[in-house]
Structures are given as structure tokens and as C-alpha cells.
Write a structure and sequence with these properties.
This protein is mostly helical. The protein is built from 20 helices and no strands. Helix 3 crosses helix 6 and helix 4 packs parallel to helix 6. The two termini are 17 Å apart.
Length: 480
């Protein structure tokens, strides 16, 4: 099916990231991993506000540019924007390091992170253009290549040469540059005969600027807790927290990301070709599959959190990480359903400024709760703060969605999936699995077989029908 066809483009990077966590938590101390998490939090915060408009513009306007024959003009406009913003980032980094008199070791990490973020954005633009064109093979190839090379190089540099946090950043840069090199011929082809288009630049910026600001606010929400953990509790505790949340983020959001890779371009294409009715029809298909797969993934993660921590996190991390994972999983689920489904209403209606109505109150709640809870209860307070802020943001997004573009939600389908998920969790809890890699694999297999059997028997989201008839979730414009 069209949604699942792009899944390897997220699942392989997810597995690579989890392997990276497994390796890095055995090579680096919590303090070293905390330094890496601290630096990347700062750079991703900058990237979200300065560079994220580029790939968002490519996702939203590629179909429109294709229909009007202006793909080359769009690409020239986006790549010129990337160049200008990259120069601005490097200049800002130079000025900031000088003004704040950052120690040489941390300054070197920040410089390396800045260059890695620029390389990462260049590779992201290449992958986004392939995704917007629904070019499955090339998108999956580029995404998997970047993640596998990035993690491999990072682990090799940290383990063999003792690079520490620098090794992870060099790995990120290496993976991104390989993707840009592989895509060089296509980049040249996209830019050929193109010219900068001021009207298109204004159109992209008017659409993307609110999203950038919203992303910036979102990253404040997701980064300020790390910065405050660093401030109140130090690098060691930040390392523990970063590992726990990274595992939860990659594991619980896996389904949302794997399906969301294709769901947004499909909805955009439906909107451009068939209008609101076609977009809602496509969204209904997307969310039915999403809920049928995301709920059991979340439930299984919660039950298996102790096993996951033992297997993935190093001995210096495991016991602490295990206690943080279940609550972190809830927070990630709340965030994912909003970002990968309900926020599409603002994108499709071009009312992207209203994204701030959900993110601004949430970030305020997050900051205040972290200030209050971190000194009192430690790093678990940061996760409670995230959960509260994400619940508030989800509630506001639901309200906005009903007013702007009433995206459907499969209540009956979600209820059936929830009951089946609870039954699966009950079975997994009742059985005695060894707390090791084999035990975790057994839990995954038993849970998947149990839930999968129920899902096929009762035909959740039409999955059985699709398998039997080999029918795919194609763009609705092709179905009508």
C-alpha cells in the first residue's frame, strides 16, 4: 500500500538510531553523551527556526510547481535560500561563541554541530524533493544510506579512535554528505534552466514562516527541558534523560513517522487535485491505518519498557532509563498524533499561523513545570512537564482542526484497536519473558502475532482486505 511502501525510509533509520544508542551508551559515559545532547539541542533549536522552512516549502509546493512547470524555479529558490541561511548560521555561530566566551572544547563541538546541521539540511532537501514526488525507491535509498553510514562512522570514530561526542557529529555529517553526493546529478538536473522566482519565494515564506516559528517554539519545548536538566542537574543526568527520551521517541513515533512519510504528500496531492473533499477522504484512509498500527506499538513499548532499557541502554544507564520510558512513551504518543495528523489541517488550509495557538501555551507550561519540578523530583519532572504540555497542545489542535478542516477520526476503529491492544498487553504481562535480548524478541513476536491475528480476523482498517486483494491505498484522485 502507498502508505506502507515508504515505511523502510523510517524503519531502517529508526533501527540504526537504536543501534547507535546501544553502542554509544556502552562507549560514552553519561556525561559525554550529555555534552552531545546539550550541543545538539542548541543546534537543532537554531535549525528549526532558520532552516526548516526550506523542506516544508518543498513538501507543500512541489505538486503545485509540477503542475505549473516551475519545478526548476522552485528548486533554485529553495537552494539559494539554503545557501543564504547557512552563511547566516555560521556567522551567528562565530559571533555567539565570541560574545559568550565559550570554552574551547565546547566551542569545537558547537562548530562541528553547526556544519553538521547545514549538511543535514542539504540532504533533507534532496530527500524531501524525492518524497514530494512520491519517488519511493530513491527516497528510501537516500534515507537508509544516510542513517546507516552516519551511525556506522559515528560508532567507529567513538569506539576505535575515542572521539567522544565529536565522533557522533562527524558521523551525522558523513551520512548527510554521502546523500548529497549521491543526489548531485539530480540536484544539477533540478536546477538546470531554473531561475530565482521572487513570487514563489514570498509564497513559500508566507506558508513556511509560521511553521518555522511554530517548529522553533516546539523545539524550545523539546530542548528547554534538556537545557534546564543540564543547568539544574548536570551533564550526567542529562545523558540519562537524553537516552531515555531518544529511545521512547524513536520507538513510539516509529509508526507515525513510517506512515507519515507518505501520508502528508498524499493528502497534499489530493487537496491540490480534488479539493477539500478529496483531502478528507485521503485523510480518513490514512488515519484508519495509523491508529490500527500505532496503538499496539505504543502498548507493546509500555509493557516491554524494562526489557528495552536493559537491551538498548548501557549498564551505566539501564536502571534509570527503565523507570523513565513508560511515561516518556505516553508523551511521545500525544505529540505524534498531533504533529502527524491533526496539524495537517493548518497546513492544508494555509492557516499555518494558527499552529502557534497550540505551541505557545504548551511551551509556557513546559518551561514553568520544569522550573518547579526539576529541583524537586529530578529528571522525571522533565517528562511530566513534556506530557502536560503535549496534552494541552493536542487539545488546542483538536479545537482548531474542528474549526478549520474537520479531519475525521475513526472512533469505532480506534475502540476496537484499543481493546485488542489491552488484551495483547495483558497477555505479555502474564507471560514470563527473560529480561534480555531473547526475551525482548520473544515479546515482540508474541505481541505481533497476537494483535496481528485479531487485526486480520476483524479486518482492522481494511488490512485483511488489502492483503487478500492486494489493493493499495492509492491517492484518492486515482480512486475517484
Amino acid at each position: 500500500m502507498a502508505l506502507l511502501a515508504f515505511a523502510p525510509g523510517y524503519l531502517v533509520p529508526m533501527l540504526a538510531t537504536l543501534f547507535g544508542i546501544y553502542a554509544f551508551t556502552r562507549i560514552l559515559s553519561p556525561a559525554e553523551y550529555g555534552d552531545y545532547a546539550f550541543v545538539m539541542s542548541i543546534m537543532l533549536l537554531v535549525q528549526s527556526g532558520l532552516l526548516s522552512w526550506i523542506d516544508m516549502g518543498a513538501k507543500r509546493f512541489f505538486e503545485r510547481a509540477t503542475q505549473s512547470g516551475r519545478v526548476s524555479a522552485m528548486c533554485v529558490t529553495l537552494y539559494l535560500g539554503l545557501l543564504i541561511c547557512s552563511v547566516g548560521l555560521l556567522i551567528s555561530c562565530t559571533v555567539g561563541l565570541h560574545l559568550f566566551r565559550v570554552p574551547p572544547g565546547m566551542a569545537a563541538l558547537l562548530w562541528l554541530a553547526a556544519v553538521a546541521i547545514i549538511a543535514k539540511e542539504a540532504s533533507t532537501l534532496s530527500k524531501t524533493l524525492e518524497l514530494a514526488a512520491l519517488s519511493r525507491s530513491r527516497y528510501v535509498l537516500l534515507e537508509c544510506t544516510e542513517s546507516l553510514i552516519g551511525v556506522s562512522v559515528g560508532v567507529w570514530l567513538c569506539w576505535y579512535y575515542g572521539f567522544g561526542a565529536n565522533g557522533i557529529l562527524w558521523g551525522i555529517m558523513a551520512g548527510a554528505l554521502v546523500v548529497v553526493a549521491l543526489d548531485a546529478k539530480y540536484i544539477k538536473s533540478r536546477l538546470r534552466n531554473g531561475s530565482f522566482n521572487l513570487d514563489m519565494q514570498k509564497q513559500v515564506l508566507m506558508f513556511s514562516a509560521p511553521i518555522c516559528i511554530s517548529f522553533f517554539v516546539e523545539f524550545i519545548m523539546s530542548s528547554c527541558d534538556r537545557l534546564m536538566v543540564q543547568f539544574f542537574l548536570g551533564s550526567h543526568e542529562l545523558g540519562i534523560y537524553a537516552v531515555a527520551y531518544s529511545i521512547a521517541e524513536r520507538s513510539v513515533s516509529a509508526v507515525f513517522m513510517a506512515l507519515g512519510i507518505a501520508s502528508y504528500p498524499l493528502v497534499v496531492r489530493a487537496m491540490e487535485r480534488g479539493g477539500v473533499e478529496a483531502a478528507i477522504k485521503q485523510a480518513r484512509q490514512n488515519v484508519e491505518v495509523l491508529i490500527a498500527i500505532a496503538l499496539p506499538a505504543w502498548g507493546g513499548f509500555t509493557v516491554a519498557s524494562g526489557h528495552i532499557a536493559t537491551v538498548l541502554a548501557g549498564p551505566a544507564y539501564a536502571s534509570r532509563v527503565s523507570g523513565l520510558l513508560p511515561l516518556a512513551g505516553v508523551a511521545v504518543f500525544m505529540y505524534s498524533i498531533r504533529v502527524h495528523y491533526y496539524s495537517h489541517a493548518q497546513h492544508l488550509t494555509n492557516k499555518t499561523w494558527s499552529l502557534l495557538a497550540a505551541s505557545c501555551p504548551a511551551v509556557l507550561i513546559n518551561v514553568v513545570m520544569n522550573l518547579v519540578l526539576l529541583p524537586q523530583v529530578g529528571i522525571i519532572g522533565a517528562i511530566w512537564a513534556r506530557l502536560a504540555s503535549y496534552v494541552v497542545a493536542l487539545g488546542i489542535s483538536l479545537w482548531l482542526c474542528r474549526r478549520q478542516l474537520p479531519l475525521p477520526f475513526p472512533v469505532w476503529g480506534a475502540t476496537r484497536a484499543l481493546v485488542a491492544t489491552l488484551a495483547m498487553c495483558g497477555v505479555l504481562t502474564a507471560l514470563d519473558f527473560a529480561n534480555n535480548t531473547l526475551g525482548l524478541v520473544e515479546m515482540i513476536v508474541v505481541g505481533a502475532l497476537f494483535y496481528g491475528t485479531i487485526a486480520l480476523v476483524f479486518d482492522f482498517a481494511g488490512l485483511r482486505s488489502m492483503l487478500l486483494t492486494r489493493r493499495s491505498l492509492r491517492p484518492v484522485s486515482n480512486l475517484t
